[in-house]
């Protein structure tokens, strides 16, 4: 009777440990997916900041305007639109912000000359030379490679964490299966980074 109870206890304990290990594996897989998604998003943001010659409101994402003493994203104080491929128009919610927006643009590293009127601020986006376009393509490739490095780094960290679970009772098959899923996620996000780069290259080289 005692022997049966002891055996049942051992079985229950083993099942509990296995369940806990499975939960940890799932946690690391979810963590890999989330972190790789953030790395992809970061790469997309950095690529967006590379000016491609075509007017886009995203060109001003990093611009901060002095709003009553507080540096504020321009999109929070004005509507930014692109009436055509060579023009951006910034129409603030408050007319007194027109001069502040123009000043912020002049003091930024955008290299653009703001033209103000009673309604807002207009920016003419100059056409780029072929040489400049190729320089920007190189810059985009550097950013995309940085994204890939971050994604591969996440794979390395997660795989190391998974291997430590072998000492906690995880089976080798379970860890190999988890590592395969991490690799699949890695491959998927690398392809997504390549897609972002391809679109950016096309945007830059389109005249």
Automatic annotation (TrEMBL):
Residues 46-205 form the Ribosome recycling factor domain. GO terms for cellular component: cytoplasm. The keyword Transmembrane does not apply. It comes from the Bacteria. Signal peptide: none annotated. One of its GO terms (biological process) is translational termination. It is found in: Cytoplasm. Pfam families: RRF. Keywords: Cytoplasm, Protein biosynthesis. GO terms for molecular function: ribosomal large subunit binding. HAMAP family: RRF. Responsible for the release of ribosomes from messenger RNA at the termination of protein biosynthesis. May increase the efficiency of translation by recycling ribosomes from one round of translation to another. Belongs to the RRF family. This is Ribosome-recycling factor. The lineage of its organism: Bacteria, Pseudomonadati, Bacteroidota, Cytophagia, Cytophagales. The gene is frr.
């Amino acid at each position: 009777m005692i022997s049966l109870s002891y055996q049942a206890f051992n079985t229950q304990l083993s099942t509990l440990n296995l369940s806990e290990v499975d939960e940890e594996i799932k946690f690391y897989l979810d963590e890999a997916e989330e972190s790789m998604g953030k790395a992809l998003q970061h790469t997309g943001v950095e690529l967006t900041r590379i000016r491609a010659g075509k007017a886009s409101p995203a060109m001003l994402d990093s611009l901060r305007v002095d709003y009553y003493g507080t540096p504020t994203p321009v999109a929070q104080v004005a509507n930014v639109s692109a009436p055509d491929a060579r023009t951006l128009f910034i129409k603030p919610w408050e007319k007194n912000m027109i001069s502040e927006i123009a000043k912020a643009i002049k003091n930024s590293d955008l290299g653009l000359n703001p033209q103000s009127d009673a309604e807002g601020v207009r920016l003419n986006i100059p056409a780029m030379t072929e040489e400049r376009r190729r320089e920007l393509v190189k810059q985009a490739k550097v950013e995309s490679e940085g994204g890939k490095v971050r994604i591969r780094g996440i794979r390395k960290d997660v795989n190391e964490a998974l291997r430590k679970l072998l000492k906690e009772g995880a089976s080798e098959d379970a860890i190999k299966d988890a590592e395969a899923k991490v690799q699949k996620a890695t491959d998927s996000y690398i392809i997504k980074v390549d897609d972002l780069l391809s679109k950016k290259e096309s945007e830059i080289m389109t005249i």
